[in-house]
Structure prediction request, 222 residues.
Amino acid sequence: MGAHSRRPVPRRDRSRLRRIRAVLAGALVLGIGGSVTLASWTDTEYASGSFTASRFSLESTVSSPYSVAGPWTVNETAPGATLAFNATGLYPGSTVYAPIALRTQTGSTAGTTSLGAAAVTGTGPAPLLGAALVYRAVRADTCDASAFVAGATFLVGSDTVRQPLTTGQAAGASTVLPAATATGPGPSVRFCFEVALPAGASNLLQGKAATAVWQFSATSTP
Prediction:
C-alpha cells in the first residue's frame, strides 16, 4: 500500500467530538476560576469596660448617752465594743440599760442588720447568772425604761415580755441601715438593750458573773 491516508471522520463523530471538546473547555474554565483567591481589606474595632465593686462596711458607738461624735469604731470580731451597762451590783428585780448605734461608713452602700442570740459565758457551778438574766432590745433614740413601751420597735421581746439572753431577733426580721455618701457616713440607727435579773432569782446567784456577746449581722442591699 502507499502512504497511510487519513480516514475522513464521519459527520456524526465530528459532532460528538465537538461536544466533548466543549465540555472539556467548560471544565477547564471552571477549574481556573475555582483556583483564584481574591484578597480583602481588613479593619478592627475594640471596646472596653471598667468595673469597680461597691463597698459595705459598718461602724458602731456605745457612747452613753448617745453622742453623734462617738467615738465610732469598727468591731468585726468578738467580744466587740463593751456596752455601758451599770451592771456590777445586780440584785433580784434590778434592771440595767445600755445603748448602741450603728451606721454605714463613708462610701458604703445601704444594708440591713439583724440581732443574733448572745453567746453567754459565766463563772461558778449551777445555777449560772447568765441563764437567769433576761433582756429586751428596741430601736430607740433614748435608752431608758421609757423606750420599752407599747408601739416601740422591738428587736427582741415586747412591752410586756423579756427573753433569755440566748434569744435573737425573729428570723427574717431586720433593720435598714441607710447608705453613706462619698464624703460622709450614713445616718446612725440607735438601739437600746435592757437586761434584768428577775425578782425571785435564786439566792445561789450571789457573787456570780456572766458575759454576753451579741452579734449584729448585716447584709448590703443594691
